[in-house]
Amino acid sequence: MLGLIVTILLVGLIAGALARLLVPGRQDMSIPMTIVLGIVGSLLGGFLGYLLFGKDSEDGFLQPAGLVGSVIGAVLVLLLWTRFGQRSTARR
């Protein structure tokens, strides 16, 4: 159980960091938020992969295609976050 949690955190950190490198512009995120970005992106990437290809985690959780899907999902989440999530100015 502890190994699964560490793996999820590590994959989240890698996917979130790669997504932040791939998306242009500045993202004001801490390391824990980068991990959360990667975990949410991994869930989104896995869901999209299941919808497109009909595959799930039967062959194991840590696969190269799963890591690529995690990065793609994290990039999508980060693009949505930068577009809709950081509206700090009030509308008039």
UniProtKB/TrEMBL annotation:
Its main location: membrane. It is found in: Cell membrane. Keywords: Cell membrane, Membrane, Transmembrane, Transmembrane helix. SUPFAM superfamilies: ABC transporter involved in vitamin B12 uptake, BtuC. The chain crosses the membrane at residues 29-53, 65-84. InterPro entries: ABC_BtuC-like, Transgly_assoc. It is a multi-pass membrane protein. Belongs to the UPF0410 family. PANTHER family: UPF0410 PROTEIN YMGE (PTHR33884). This is GlsB/YeaQ/YmgE family stress response membrane protein.
